[in-house]
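User: Hi! Is it possible to get a structure for several chains at once, not just one? Here's what I have:
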Amino acid sequence: MLRPAIILAVLLTALTARAESVRIVTAGAAVTEIVSRLGLAPQIVAVDTSSKYLEETRDKPDVGYVRMLGAEGILSQKPDLVLVSGEAGPPPVLEQIRAAGVDVVVISNGYTLDNIDDKIRTIAAAAGRVEDGEKLITKVNADLQALRSATATNEGERPGVVFLLARHGGNLMAAGTETAAHAMIEASGGRNVCASFSGYQPLSAEIFATATPDFVIVSESVGGDDTQLLARVPGLGATPAGRQLRVIRVDDAAFLGFGPRTPSAATEVALALRKP
Amino acid sequence: MNQHLPSLVAEKVTLSREKRQILDGVSLRVRPGKLLAVIGPNGAGKSTLLSVMSGLSKAGSGQVMLNGRAISDFRPSDRARHCAVMRQDNARPSGLTVLEAVELGRLAYGAEDDVRSLAWEMLQQMDLADLAGRDCSRLSGGEWQRVAFARTMAQISGGETAGVLLLDEPVSSLDPAHQHQLLGEARRLTRAGHGVLAILHDLNLTAHYADEVALLAAGRIHSSGPVAEIMRPAVLSEIYGCRVSEIREGGERALVSFPAEKTR
Amino acid sequence: MNAAREDDSLRRGRAHRRLCFLAALLPLVLLIASALGAVNIGFADLRNLVAAPAQVPEIIRAVFWEIRLPRVLLAALVGAALALAGAGVQGLFRNPLADPALIGVSAGAAVGAVVCFFFGWEGLLGGWLLPLAAFLGGWLAVLVLGIFHAGFAAGGTAKLILAGVALNAMLGSVLGFFLFSASDDALRSMTFWTLGSCASAQWPQVVVLLVFLAAGIILLWRNARSLDALQFGEEQAAHLGVSVPRVRREVIVAAALLVGAATAFAGTIGFIGLVAPHMARLLLGGLHRLVLPGALLLGAMLLVLADLGARTLVAPAELAVGILTAVIGGPFFLALLCRPFSAST
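Assistant: Yes, the chains can be modeled jointly so their relative placement is included. Here is the combined structure:
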């Protein structure tokens, strides 16, 4: 349903050769990252809260949480172009922004590395930076190639991995299927030991009775050293990952964002998984 | 004045709750122009009887007829136009003034023009006009009881036909002067053709104001009839389990009670 | 006697004047709220929006007519609906602390919405699945309560309240389950939803809510005198001619319609349903023919003001309106609690 609309929007925006002073509002970390990689950071006039971690957009006005945007707030930034990721909403708000005569381009996201180039291409076309887009795609494709060679060698005996997500309040959750983390574990050549459930689930010691991870992946923003981390999860200490203190720290914005930095983040993890 | 005479009749009403017999074959008649007092010890079933006769509780067997029709066949608003009830557990609403509370007596009549003047009339009759603007929650217990009575009068007055009033211990919170005032008004209503049933505890007031008395004990009518026949010191002493004596002064007769005689 | 009559007519006159004042204040509040927002619309443009639309930039016109005005009106309708439901439920339960939430409609709606977020369905049906799920969730909860209540041998309102407490607890744990197992993103959406927002206001929603509000007004207004009588207690009210079961049914249906629809479009917004009726009672006295319209007007104004704060305080971002209702309503309520404004003095 959305596809033709996006393509139409892309074509329209591509046809109207954009002046340098295009004002852009972005929402969604991966979208913002691509836009700023295309050299458009100075033209971003406001971003959503999840994009504030980027150096280039740290001081831009904040239009709020990506799923709870306000139409008038965004319009008050006088944007010519609004680039949002697929989860942006609520839907009526996007409709209202369109109704006010502003181009809104939704960049669909999925938990796959295969469409990063699509995202870049869509954004580049919308922003009138097709050439820069192709350059970025070339780099992403090179990173993907590196990832493939990093994972090619140990096919067949994939190490077991558990991804731990720190929630607000500090309790840790394990990533099941249908999560960004699951897709990234697979892409990095690992095997998610928590494939028996979907979504993020709170940890119980019993998970590790049947699932024996060789590695733990956790965000680098989680405090404490590896020993402290393992001590927080009952049962984890007895697994191979726990006994050998095999904890991989990742920049979760890069690792889980499915943006331009994601392939290289995956390559790093893939290399770490190959260590004995 | 009356097209037809109001009547409320209980016929062999029986009611038990959780295997306990509360009412056992009670028959009672509220007659137009008469004040019927129901007396009896605590737990005799007086309030339950009133609840059944007002149509709010269903009798286990037997029936209650209002103006010749089973009371359960009435819609609440129809019933309320023929039978006004003043309960003991009347909640005192905050936010309503005394006048507004009395006006609510006319709820069942729908939109009327003269509700306010009727309510004022009732308040004047009960000497409550000065309290008209007072919030009900700021009344004393006695004042509230008089307001509730004024509301009950408003509910039954002013119509073409006379009705029935059921009063559950209407003077329990009142000082002697106001007890006489309220029961005097109740008797005045009987003169206008209304039938009144009042549950009373004060034997003296009962003897003075009632036309008829029904003595209820352990869910049964012990005896009923004219005051002079029923309210004999010997019977009352036995029923209540305390000593009741009669005092005569001038032409008046009064009943007084004393503590039960201790066995020596 | 004459003095008392004079007092009485003075008091009634004052209550009516206050109600008229509130009725006149609402358009003013609506006007102020539609003049202010993240996009700065100058006074000249505001005047020209009606007088000479052609002179106003198109974007300003779009912002005003398609974004701001429907949002202000939706906030007014949501506030009115919540306050009206609160007034009805408080009257029915004869309990000043009663809240429409007591009959389970808010918790049911929350479960409906949270299920939507949990499965990532909130954008389906053009965004209408979320309000639909919330509304149905609320109704399902009230229906379950009604079935249980009908099953009680001797019901009465006290048992209804207790059943509502139990139902709320059960729905609370269903809610807790989804919150606990939700992904971080879904969890945030759920949290935002339970704090309320009028951000997705559009004209169709305004129209839909207006219909529900009208239905609620009709149902409650025809029971206004019965609700007055209920203040004497249910049995005494029955003696006065009130059909208590019918009143109970109609008031609960009205509250479920009002809260269900309001919550469906704006999430759960607390405080207004509880406090607006109180404010109305303090200003106007306890008669429901005054309390109901008074609560409606006060609820509308409170939420319009709270939403004005929600969309301007941290612009261009949004605050959840539920955070602001208490901040704006609380001090106002405390001021009213002080004697001088009380209707009965």
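Residues 130-152 of chain A form the longest helix (23 residues). The two ends of chain A are 47 Å apart (CA to CA).

User: Great, thank you!
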